[in-house]
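---------- Forwarded message ----------

FYI, see the Carbohydrate ABC transporter permease record below. Original note from H. follows.
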Amino acid sequence: MRTRTVGLSVTGLIVAVVYLIPVYWMVATSLKETGDVFNSPPDLVPSPPTLAAYRDAVFGDSAVLQGIWSSTIITIPTLLLTLALAVPAAYGLARFSLRVNGVVMLLMLAAQMLPTISLALPMFAIFSDYGLVDTYAGLIIANTSLALPFAVVMLRPYMLAIPQDLMDAGLLDGCTGFRAFWKIGLPLVQPGLVMVATLTFVMTWGEFVFGLTLATSDAIQPITVVLNRFVAQFGTQWTNLMAVSTIIAIPIIVIFVLLQKYVVAGISEGGIKD
């Protein structure tokens, strides 16, 4: 038993190191001088480290700062709208036995398999008719359409696990159906809500295709699109690219560090409650 535990720990450590090496290399490259990036053999540790790339490409570039602000404006409303739509949808699919439930769930699963570009082009045509191209509202709607099927599928097992007896007791105490769900059911699915909110944030914060096709002006484009500008026809600005990439990664890393136990618990519990 002890040997098995040690083996699993070593395996987990190796996997973690493999995944963290690219992250370390990204941060290390962002702290190098431009000329040091192409040293052979490469410098494993920046010597000396410099913040020039952050000064020039992040805080000294208004387009990058605007991109970060645009991503924030897009991501937070998308997160809230996704939860506002996914929670009642998942609850309805879990509690009401309708003939179309299976079809709806199948469509939800199929929607997650569609390439984003296959959704972006029809959306561009539709949004053009309604003046939603190159607007935050258009990007929020597009990102919500991408995150919503995932959120519903992930939340439905939690809704199935809400004890019906507790809901009935709430109704007997004089609660309406909505109030019983709000006061009794919703707190029971909190791990699922945190998990879905976290993964929706990650999906939306890192989304690229919608930002590229539905946003045409610098003032609206998210940071993922702005990041692409550092990859030029005649060369890549590696230190600047890695500096901006590090800034983009910070919110995701912070959220996962703070909420990792909820995310892991949410995924594992959701997988066995259906």
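H. also flagged this: The chain has a mean pLDDT of 86.
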